[in-house]
Amino acid sequence: MQITFLGTSSGVPTRSRNVSAVGLRLPQRAEFWLFDCGEGTQHQILRSELKISQLRRIFITHLHGDHIFGLMGLLASYGLAGNPNRIDIYGPPGLNEYLQACQRYSYTHLSYPLKVYTVRPGVVYEDEEYTVICGNLKHRVTAFGYRIVEKDRPGRFNVEKAAQMGIPPGPMYGQLKRGEKVTLPDGRTINGADLCGPTEIGRKIAYCTDTIYCDGAVDLAQDADVLIHEATFAHQDADLAFERLHSTSTMAAQVALAAGVKQLIMTHFSPRYAPGNDLQLDDLLKEARAIFPHTQMAYDFFSHEVPRRRTNEAG
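^ Ribonuclease Z, sequence as received from the core. Prediction below:
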């Protein structure tokens, strides 16, 4: 699982930072999922290592323009890419109506299946490998955060040991790989778990923006390997954060600390902290690290590989 930040500014783009969009690459599937889609996101994808042809799912947090103004353009371009696949989109009430209006007034016809799901707190997507959960955040409009959970996988199956034990290759190997017990023709019962390495613990990622500090963000981020959290303002601008229902760098760090995450990556920075101003982004990073040392600051095209953990590494 690889996280790629396509836009890390808040509200408006700057020369070095586009507005909100984060890609989650799933290499074993040759696909990626997109979280939010600010204006110009399709250009950012072209400049990244992500391939638009591999886009399968889009998750939208809320309907402010800096999170959705790139959506219709991206969907229109995707349809011209050649042999497009179905795209599923998840987001708050009103998202489907917004997209229908965009298509109607721009005379856009999509040449591929598109399904829009209106989300509410709870599981919004699940398959054999992943579960995606959404929860309420606290912003000026209805806003959701997302939690992506990769399911645990059995450890590596020891083929050599199985052969030494006289277990014949075939469908039985599949059962043993899943950790199941099987009975051999000679009457022996073999526990598949004894032939597999340590269980690979599924990775967990939380995406929380836009929001002020709230219990919903802490719940979504519980024990996450990576928490992506907005940090629009510096601590000294907390009054602005409360007024606009955005987070400061210290609020993001407090969410990470309360949730017991492994890594915090901050994003969605106000342009007011540009180089040359009294306060700069390095100051926000120092503020956050004073509370939660394992903090990084995202920038456009920054990629982070989420490492796997085994059972003996958990905790």
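The radius of gyration is 22 Å.
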